[in-house]
Amino acid sequence: xxxxxxxxxxxxxxxxxxxxxxxxxxxxxxxxxxxxxxxxxxxxxxxxxxxxxxxxxxxxxxxxxxxxxxxxxxxxxxxxxxxxxxxxxxxxxxxxxxxxxxxxxxxxxxxxxxxxxxxxxxxxxxxxxxxxxxxxxxxxxxxxxxxxxxxxxxxxxxxxxxxxxxxxxxxxxxxxxxxxxxxxxxxxxxxxxxxxxxxxxxxxxxxxxxxxxxxxxxxxxxxxxxxxxxxxxxxxxxxxxxxxxxxxxxxxxxxxxxxxxxxxxxxxxxxxxxxxxxxxxxxxxxxxxxxxxxxxxxxxxxxxxxxxxxxxxxxxxxxxxxxxxxxxxxxxxxxxxxxxxxxxxxxxxxxxxxxxxxxxxxxxxxxxxxxxxxxxxxxxxxxxxxxxxxxxxxxxxxxxxxxxxxxxxxxxxxxxxxxxxxxxxxxxxxxxxxxxxxxxxxxxxxxxxxxxxxxxxxxxxxxxxxxxxxxxxxxxxxxxx
Amino acid sequence: xxxxxxxxxxxxxxxxxxxxxxxxxxxxxxxxxxxxxxxxxxxxxxxxxxxxxxxxxxxxxxxxxxxxxxxxxxxxxxxxxxxxxxxxxxxxxxxxxxxxxxxxxxxxxxxxxxxxxxxxxxxxxxxxxxxxxxxxxxxxxxxxxxxxxxxxxxxxxxxxxxxxxxxxxxxxxxxxxxxxxxxxxxxxxxxxxxxxxxxxxxxxxxxxxxxxxxxxxxxxxxxxxxxxxxxxxxxxxxxxxxxxxxxxxxxxxxxxxxxxxxxxxxxxxxxxxxxxxxxxxxxxxxxxxxxxxxxxxxxxxxxxxxxxxxxxxxxxxxxxxxxxxxxxxxxxxxxxxxxxxxxxxxxxxxxxxxxxxxxxxxxxxxxxxxxxxxxxxxxxxxxxxxxxxxxxxxxxxxxxxxxxxxxxxxxxxxxxxxxxxxxxxxxxxxxxxxxxxxxxxxxxxxxxxxxxxxxxxxxxxxxxxxxxxxx
Lengths: 481, 471
Hints:
Chain B: The chain crosses the membrane at residues 25-42, 54-71, 83-101, 121-138, 147-165, 177-205, 249-265, 272-291, 356-373, 385-410, 422-441. By secondary structure, chain A is of the alpha+beta class. Chain A has 18 helices and 21 strands.
């Protein structure tokens, strides 16, 4: 009986080897997958057992964990309610995390590699482990002005420091109160969630970066930049007919309101931008050609690719251009051109920063629980789409837009504001999107801003420019300017 | 560690093979140390202080193993020195994890807080008592073969009892495998398993000649005669009956597997394995077609996440525990093993995997492997055919059960309702497995004992008494 016994012994060894291999597979290979599944409540529950780090704006926590007496030791709260919701997101027992609560989760939960040494120290000293803090670049005055400006409308505001790319403001409406999604009462969380789900316009969407929209005339700045790079000057005279017939089509591009841009049928580039002349830019787009327009758009970041700030930003781009008719429509920011409000602010910031686009960033510092800085973001040059000379020419033209053109509602006494308005048709059924992007002061830019109002009707100059003015004013006042 | 040189008896008596009792004692000390330290870690992590009962627990658990060890020294001096320490480690670890899960219920302020660890300690004590009683009263394992048919009857009765009792007295979570009397729950299947293995061993030793020799060749394979298929068919039908009337997939699979392997060992004919696998495949196919609960088990196994809010909940939670534990584990008291339903019994391995990590779980599997391989080694060495087959059956039973239950918990196999031997909460399983190990210890003592006192190297007699004269 010994021969079969030996075979049984070997079979047992094989069976146990299978067990061990399978356990290796589950606990090593699939470990990350299993850990990160949203239905794995133990990871989330464990997070409630330690103090989650705060999200901080200028020394004040806009998301913080406070101790409770309940089963879950900490409660997540957002003292400012709706003000920072678009940026912080929520930290929910049921619906997991969103926005910064999601992308900076490792730091906030204390599991980030940069906090590893400290965790080790906590283990030996018996100190309760806690998460690190995330300090934002936002400016409260800008944020409040942006939310005040957006009151009652659907839209977004983004403000940048053109020199560094630091994001000074990022607001999106309608907003919501993340505290209500982060309570310990599942029924209340679900009720509030259902309410948000039922809303006509989703309050959980951060419209500043989460979606892209047709920019309308904002895009003319990019066409103008391409023309200036090709040797034109603001004073160069370009054709500006009353109507621009679309090539190979019976349709035409009219000017806004159907009026002529100039009695002579031609005007200077600066005048064309100042009054936002559609026919002039449609013709200019075809003159430049698809490659040149596309090249300049991509140089500014409309390249169809998303990026991270570290929140994920939706892609901006100009889409496929099938013929000259499409090119003409593209040149005035219609057709398939799509832009996030952040992208609009980046265009303004590039012009403001002498043609250098800085990489936008939202997180200034990551701090350990004892507030020592363990990581900070250094400003980084991202792209250089235009020369300093062209940037100066564009500044001159955009200053004219605000001083005497379509953007007059953004004027501020004693401050030169540069900007560009945009009004984008969406369809015949819904009201237009309106835009404004700009920066100030024009000679020494401190802030670049983009304002987007979805389906608000009216024009960019009427609806969006006044909001931009309030935001710029709030920031410059805060800077003592 | 005590070697042969420090054992005065082995040094004094020339030719007496080493008994390795001091090795056993040292290993037991090690197992006790691990148990006590692990308990202390659990208390310190969860409550921040050592509970006063710790001293009593440590003394109790130490006393258990000291008594068991001393009984082996006196009544089974040549026994394999690894069997008892492996059991001690598993039982100690099981008690620790159960205690840890007791605390978890308090942690989350659950309405159902139960102190299961002390109950399990009582069962362990009863198990050791039966272990001791067996070694003291059964001096020669061959006496068991005399009661083969009695044990077979007892085994069948134990197996059938829950099926015959009303559901209120026998059904827990859908499986009719319990006898519930006066607050006690007994799972008679665990005892039936041992009774039936003893019977299989005695029966097969008796009949192996005819089962092995009478055969005819069909398509190049030696097949047994039709009438000799009787026993394997009976075992198969028995397993199917268990499945039908008790909805107990695990025991069904366990009994059939054990019987086929013992048949193979007894006859040395691999054709029995083929027949066994064929019958199993047929039975499995039929069961899948006919029984909803079998089909549900298989479907959940294939894609647990598709059923994660229903039938797959347990398995998914178990996988989450294992995955979250990762390589090093969350540490004792650091995880959330209480999130897995019935973590103390069926899913105790996932609690081990979550808190002790891959290292801890693999260590546990290897301790089982040591236990099983020492049992199989005993079977190789022991001189009488009955002992050989009995040891092989018992060792393989442990191996097969561990494979089926751990495979189920880790998603390698469909889930069955078997308990994890020695580790899991449950009195019947623990006590029965102590008896199982007592039998193995008894046989290993016979295996390693010199044929005659002070004789020269023991003569391998092989299977002489049952040698068959080929016609």
